[in-house]
Amino acid sequence: MDTLIMLTLILALIPITLTLILIKHKQPSKNHPPGSLGIPYIGQSLALLRAMRTNRDREWLQQRIEKYGPVSKLNLFGCPTVLLAGPVGNKFVFMNEGNVLGNHQPRSFTRILGDRIIIELVGEEHRRLRGAIGGFMRPEVLKRSVGRMDEEVRLHLDMFWRGKSQVKVSPLMKTLTFDMICSLLFGLERGHRRSELVNGFEQLIAGLWSIPVNLPFTQFGKSLRASRRIRSIVTSIVHEKRTALAGGGREPSNDVITSLLSFGLEEGPGTLTEEEVVDNVMFLMVAGYDTTSILITFLIRQLSRDLDVYDKVLREQEGIAKNKAPGERLTWEDLSKMKYTWRVAMEVSRIVPPAFGSMRRVLKDIEYKGYQIPKGWQIFWAATVTQMDEHIFPEPTKFDPSRFESQSPCPPPPFSYIPFGGGPRICPGYEFAKCETLVVIHHVVTGFKWNLCAKEDSFIRNPVPEPYEGLPIQIDARH
After folding, report:
1. How far apart are CA 409 and CA 278, in angstroms?
2. Which of 32, 58, 78 is nearest to 359 (CA)?
3. Which residues form the domain of 317?
4. Is 453 labelled as part of a ligand binding site?
5. Which keywords describe this protein according to UniProt (predicted)?
6. Is the dihedral of CA 469, 206, 300, 344 positive or negative?
7. In terms of CB atoms within 10 Å, which of 92, 210, 293, 468 comes out highest?
8. 97 and 117 in contact (C-beta within 8 Å)?
9. What is the rounded end-to-end Cα distance, in angstroms, of the chain?
10. SS3 string of the chain?
11. What is the pTM of this model?
């Protein structure tokens, strides 16, 4: 009886199968890029995350490029994806904002931070919100901020460095950059709420690039819970600033939160909802919390490994310090003299980019390099693909700040050095991060001598680079 039923089912399926085959042959096949989408939903996500956490991400990407070429398809974080490699691919990503591509992060990223963050918006919405935020990144505003940055750095070093024989650089730099963001951008004074925010951010950030499965034991689930705690604190701060603004107690130029609230009032009801303000405050905290602290951490690491570079940085910084009175703050003009120090920072960002890469959403069916890329897919770019390319940067593993001299004989081609992105979406906080980095390095170099004491001088990406053990160093006061 069972055999008869099986034969009946097979006979019934034969015409359906033949029909599907005929339809498939009649329809032209889509000329998608080479590669495989892998297991549905998961695809290559676990393989990429594993490569990042074992510091083999560049090797993993290079193997794909060697196998499939500069354009290949894969599946990342539940979405069909196309990896574009090389300066031409980077240019396509950065210069096709709006009509062709929209910024897009993994679903885990927007679930944790919100759908209305600035990097997810396109067109006029993005330009308007960038204008509201970018007002605090203008040179005239930053010039006034350098003295306050100097204050924060001095206070931090007095609290956490002086009198110590050993410190862990990575967690301390995260604390410092977060304190500067809270003070300079959000007007949030030191206290219990600021400490709560710091405590929750490590957990929140760990799940930004993860498979979005919300279970108690998954990293995504843990990050969502941290996000809810932080969102509650930020919402209460927004309520307070809205009340102060309504009562005439604050000027829109006081901080970013007040500026965003004022922006909504000036442009008409509903322009920026409370949810949008909270989403973008959380995003700015995450962006500033990680990227600058990573750059400073790996810059300190590099100076301990390369004594020639260290000596040049020290001479430059001591030359600036000797023209300052005791306790006198750094100024914008002082930072403009730190040219070699910033070239060193640029080379650090080339070898260890703070941001691994990013995504763009395909807004309509497009053709690229002869391949069809359907609407709804995502485009993926990674900074290390070009920044560690020996054809663009000779001897890419060699640390050489002279690559970024204005008279360099081999300047990198456009869209090959992209640690801060490029095009209309280049990081709006680039100059703010530059000021922070230079102020911190000035005080660390002129105030301390140090040696690495980590058992293993390496790092992982989770998803941002993290040195093993937090980069412990032995320190001595210079004077």
Report:
1. 47
2. 78
3. 32-477
4. no
5. Heme, Iron, Metal-binding, Monooxygenase, Oxidoreductase, Signal
6. positive
7. 293
8. no
9. 94
10. CHHHHHHHHHHHHHHHHHHHHHHHHHCCCCCCCCECCCCCCCCCHHHHHHHHHCCCHHHHHHHHHHHHCCEEEEEECCEEEEEECCHHHHHHHHCCECCCEEEECCHHHHHHHCCCCHHHCCHHHHHHHHHHHHHHHCHHHHHHHHHHHHHHHHHHHHHHCCCCCEEEHHHHHHHHHHHHHHHHHCCCCCCHHHHHHHHHHHHHHHCCCCCCCCCCCCHHHHHHHHHHHHHHHHHHHHHHHHHHHHCCCCCCCCCHHHHHHHHHHHHCCCCCCHHHHHHHHHHHHHHHHHHHHHHHHHHHHHHHHCHHHHHHHHHHHHHHHCCCCCCCCCCHHHHHCCHHHHHHHHHHHHHCCCCCEEEEEECCCEEECCEEECCCCEEEEEHHHHHCCCCCCCCCCCCCHHHHCCCCCCCCCCCCCCCCCCHHHCCCCHHHHHHHHHHHHHHHHHHEEEEECCCCCCEEECCCEEEHHHCEEEEEECC
11. 0.82
- Cβ neighbors of 240 (< 8 A, separation 6 or more) are none
Task: Measure the CA–CA gap between 304 and 310, rounded to whole angstroms.
Answer: 7
Residue 19 domain-assigned (yes or no)? no
Q: Do the Cβ atoms of 133 and 428 come closer than 8 Å?
A: yes
> By the 8 A CB rule, do 448 and 475 touch?
yes
Residue closest to 82 by CA, chosen among 91, 95, 73: 73
Q: Is 1 part of any domain?
A: no
C-alpha distance from residue 430 to each of 89, 149, 421, 427 (Å): 22, 15, 10, 5
Question: Residues with Cβ < 8 Å from 259, sequence gap 6 or more?
Answer: 132, 133, 135, 136, 252, 253
State residue 461 phi and psi, 5-degree precision.
Answer: -115, 130
With a cut of 70, list the residues of the chain below it in pLDDT.
Answer: 1-29, 104, 122-123, 134-136, 249-254, 263-271
> Does the residue 371 lie in any domain?
yes
CB-based contacts of 169, cutoff 8 Å, min separation 6 = 296, 297, 300, 301, 467, 470, 471, 472, 473
Q: How far apart are CA 457 and CA 467, in angstroms?
A: 7
Q: Per the domain annotation, does 2 fall within a domain?
A: no
**C-alpha of 260 from chain center:** 22
Looking up residue 72, the CATH number of its domain turns out to be 1.10.630.10
Q: How many CB atoms lie within 10 A of CB 38?
A: 16
Q: How buried is 147 (Cβ within 10 angstroms: 0-12 exposed, 13-18 middle, 19+ buried)? A: middle
pLDDT one-digit tens code per residue, 288-303: 777 899 999 999 999 9
Tokens standing for 460? 């992982």
CB 323 within 8 A of CB 316: no
| Residue whose C-alpha is closest to residue 246's, from 258, 236, 255, 257 | 258
pLDDT value at position 271? Answer: 61
